[in-house]
Design a protein that fits this description.
- 45% of the residues lie in helices and 12% in strands.
- The protein is built from 19 helices and 14 strands.
- It is globular and about 70 Å long.
- The N and C termini lie close together (6 Å).
- 36% of the residues are buried.
- It binds adenosine-5'-triphosphate and magnesium ion.
């Protein structure tokens, strides 16, 4: 569960944040004074701070400076009114992750919070490289196949340098883990890592996000904005899904790689940055070049050092270790004894092609542990065995009995007396489904949301709506 500290002298603002972030399952602590907030940070560890600028006593900017000194990697989002815009810009230059102007758009706040938390997650904890012990305390990269050995060697070779690295591989192969391992073993590990997912940010916003803009650069640019490249000065930037960046942005990224300079959008000032660039993509860049979607010069620049992460089907010998690692992790998370994995189940897993790679295997084990609740996992408990022969699709539907469902609907309609048949049935069904999944996951809402394949926020909102019993730790 993530822990967020909100510091604002206005109680109702703090309370609004508490409510909004609470719907996403975050734990929120609120403080009315900067000094009290700083004390909190000494006592307890947080994943994110949301800080008002104008407060009686120590102001937000002073507090930010102190936080950046004591916890350089802790992301801080600044809140500001129109009147303190200039301070907000100064704050981003001082290392604030981003700022939000009051009054807030809840959607926008949640998006910024998610982005900040993603970066925080990537900086947190040490990634162990295939540790010996059965249950490593932290996250780990698992696998001893020759393909993975090459990956580890490459991480070792590049980590301590400042060289740009391109991490390539299919979706779910572990590119993000590799990027984190490089960052953590680099000389810049005490400085922040900023993450920009080039595929997740709309094209029109991506340039501003990366390079910033000046006031008036375009309609809606009401003030200067500092981009992630500038914020990452002396640190590291991770350009995820670089293969999806539009051509105009590719040109600007190329220039940063070559000259370490750029201009903010709509600005004349040339900004020089000292940034280590890590990039990742699951795209076939050679093909993208041939089709005109990717610049060859940027490709050559990025590809000087590239780390290919092999798909799981090309390193099936890693499957048993990976399965064991995830079994241990999930059993511990769910406070169960580690379940046995039946021999035939493991055999099937070794034969399966894993189109979704390690991510699919991770989900497969998680589901199996949730459903078997500590009993041995048999081949029949694996999702890809329940399919009707379509091996390529990881998201199979279990074959529930349509007849029984139809009986239920008939009974329902026969006895229904209201005039909202649709809403009432769907809500009733949904409530039962959620209640049952919460029971099976022993009220762990994060696991329940994962099992249902729903975003956590959506799930939590519904749990509140139906007033289902809240779970313990997520
Ligand atoms: N070798 C590994 N050992 C342990 N866990 C792994 C390994 N590879 C991947 N994982 C886990 O699988 C999941 C997917 O990995 P990751 O997010 O790094 O994939 P990716 O290559 O970045 O995928 P995408 O292209 O979809 O972004 C994560 O939960 C990650 O922790
Ligand atoms: Mg990724």
């Amino acid at each position: 569960m993530t822990k967020i500290l909100v510091v604002d002298d206005e109680r109702n603002v703090a309370a609004a944040f508490e409510k909004l972030l609470g719907t996403q399952g975050h734990e929120v602590v609120t403080m009315q004074r900067a000094a009290a907030g700083l004390e909190c940070l000494q006592r307890d560890s947080f994943d994110l701070v949301i800080l008002d600028i104008r407060m009686p006593g120590m102001n937000g900017l002073e507090a930010l400076r102190q936080i950046k000194k004591d916890h350089p990697k802790l992301p801080v989002i600044i809140m500001t009114g129109e009147g303190t815009m200039e301070t907000a810009i100064e704050a981003t230059q001082c290392g604030a992750f981003d700022y939000q102007i009051k009054p807030f758009e809840p959607e926008e706040v949640l998006a910024v919070v998610e982005r900040a938390l993603l970066g925080a997650r990537m900086m947190k904890g040490q990634i162990a490289v295939d540790p010996e012990q059965d249950a490593p305390a932290t996250e780990a990269i698992i696998g001893r196949s020759s393909g993975m050995q090459e990956v580890y060697k490459a991480i070792g070779r590049v980590a301590a340098t400042d060289v740009t690295v391109l991490i390539r591989g299919e979706s779910g192969t572990g590119k993000e883990l590799v990027a984190r391992a490089i960052y953590q073993h680099s000389g810049r590990s005490a400085k922040p890592l900023l993450v920009v997912n080039c595929a997740a940010i709309p094209e029109t916003l991506l340039e501003g996000e990366l390079f910033g803009y000046e006031r008036g650069a375009f309609t809606g640019a009401v003030s200067r904005r500092i981009g992630k490249f500038e914020q990452a000065h002396q640190g590291t930037i991770f350009l995820d899904e670089i293969g999806d960046a539009p051509l105009s942005i590719q040109a600007k990224v190329l220039r940063v790689l070559q000259e370490r300079t750029f201009e903010r959008l709509g600005g004349n000032e040339t900004i020089r940055v000292d940034v280590r660039v890590l990039a990742a993509t699951n795209r076939d860049l050679e093909m993208a070049i041939a089709e005109g979607g990717f610049r060859a010069d940027l490709y050559h620049r990025l590809n000087v050092v590239s780390i290919p992460v092999p798909p799981l089907r090309e390193r099936r010998e890693d499957v048993p270790r990976l399965a064991d690692y995830f079994l241990t992790r999930f059993a511990r998370e769910m406070e169960l004894d580690k379940p046995l994995l039946a021999e035939d189940a493991l055999k099937q897993m070794e034969k399966y092609s894993w189109p979704g790679n390690v991510r699919e295997l991770e989900h497969c084990i998680r589901r199996a542990v949730i459903f078997t609740r500590g009993y041995p996992i048999q081949a029949a408990d694996l999702p890809f065995n329940k399919s009707n022969g379509n091996k390529g699709d990881a998201r199979q539907r279990p074959s529930f009995s349509e007849g029984r469902l139809l009986d239920l609907v008939r009974d329902y309609l026969d006895s229904y007396g209201g005039d909202h048949a649709y809403d009432d049935l769907i809500e009733g069904l949904e409530k039962s489904l959620f209640a049952e999944v919460l029971r099976r996951t022993r009220a762990n809402r994060t696991h329940a949301a994962q099992l249902l394949g729903l975003p956590r926020g959506t799930f939590f909102t519904k749990v509140q709506k139906y007033d289902l019993r809240e779970g313990p730790e997520d």
